[in-house]
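Data deposition worksheet. Section B asks for the primary sequence of the deposited chain exactly as it was used as input, without tags or linkers unless they were present during the calculation. Section C holds the resulting structure in token form. Section D is free text for depositor observations; keep each observation to a single sentence. Incomplete worksheets are returned to the depositor.
Section A, Depositor: J.P.
Section B:
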Amino acid sequence: MLIKNIRPFYEKILSHVSEGICCLDNDRKIVYFNKAAEDITGFKEKEIIHSHCYDNIFMHVYENGKQLCKTRHCPAIQAISTGKENLQDAIFLHHKNGYRIAVNLKTSPLRDDNNNIVGVMKIFNHANPASQTQKQLEHLKKISMIDTLTDLGNRRFGELELDININQFKRYDWPFGIIFFDIDDFKLINDSFGHSIGDDILKMVAKTIQEATRPFDRIVRWGGDEFLVIIVNINENSLKAIAEKLRRLIEQSFIELNGEKISPTISIGATLAKKHDTIPTIIDRSDSLMYQSKNAGQNKTTFG
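Section C:
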């Protein structure tokens, strides 16, 4: 019953937090496991859902080797039997690949509208300061996915985000759409004003998109003068409206060179994700739509 209340509303929030979250029912059966929990433990939700914590999948132990889940010291048992909030433990869980991970664990009971305890939420994160090394590696990974000219995500980043959104759409029916565009006659801009001005145009377009989209949408410099915007939780009318907003705002942007205003335009292809989509199919569809906009005279949006 608990998980029906959590999904789909809260799951959209919990899937984006940095702490691992594992929810159990009163029988200590795992009913929810977020993305951060998957990253920390190596286990996918589908591998452990409906298992019990005392099945010892994670095999929680204290640093002295004492086991938790098969004893009365299990934090879930304590939370259910006492109703105490934020029971804290420093423990070591078992990673899928075999090694132990030091985590700070916080356990609290979950209650229904009548204040009855209906389960437990476990929140955990890395506790070992040595994990800073991993954070440094993650930072290097992040750098490798940033376009240095525009500070947007690069194509590699875009492909990863598309893969995530396609999988979430197929698994949870979370809709998303993409806006794919390039700058009209960009080669002419480079040839007429030089590549330095061309770079300034690219940065201006990138900044305009950042200012006109939501923090949780993803903006990508796909390559050259091509850009991709991934819009989540969207319908057809809203996607069209956002695409047109971007087109109009970029049309009204400009830089000045020797008293002359250089104002680019863009041609857009916009499409909602479909159940059969892969990265190539959704990109190819949006690219084809973009060229329909160009063939119709440029500075247009085509939806399909």
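Section D:
Residues 221 and 227 are 5 Å apart (CA to CA).
The mean pLDDT is 86.
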